[in-house]
Amino acid sequence: MSDQERAELRVEFVHRLASRNLLMLSGRRAGGHLAVGDAVTIRTPAGETIRTTIRTIELHGRPGMTTVGVESGAGEVSAGSVLYTS
After folding, report:
1. Torsional sign, CA 31, 78, 57, 75
2. CA distance linking residue 73 with residue 33, whole number of Å
3. Do residues 73 and 51 touch, judged by C-beta distance below 8 A?
4. Is the confidence at residue 1, as pLDDT, over 60?
5. Contacts of 70 by beta carbon, 8 Å cutoff, 6+ apart
6. How far apart are CA 12 and CA 20, in angstroms?
7. Predicted TM-score of the model (pTM)
8. Of 37, 49, 35, whose CA–CA distance to 83 is shortest?
9. Range list of H helices, 28-70
10. Which domain of life is it from (predicted)?
11. pLDDT digits (tens, 9 = 90+) for 27-78
């Protein structure tokens, strides 16, 4: 890992946008920054590890919430998952 602080997003809501082939993951972010193109790892409540890339960051969420989009084929992501920068 570089000298940048690792970002972490605790997923509270998951929405599938079939028209854009995205899973939208919303939650509270801690740590460093997230950016489009960042390689991320998602740890599901079941212990599964999913590696994917951020495709979009949405700016119209509730205050204190961050929403990122990853490819919908990434895997089964549910509320309670944790996304972090790789």
Report:
1. positive
2. 24
3. no
4. no
5. 22, 23, 25, 40, 42, 52, 53, 54, 55, 77
6. 21
7. 0.88
8. 49
9. none
10. Bacteria
11. 999 999 999 999 999 999 999 999 999 999 998 777 889 999 998 887 889 9
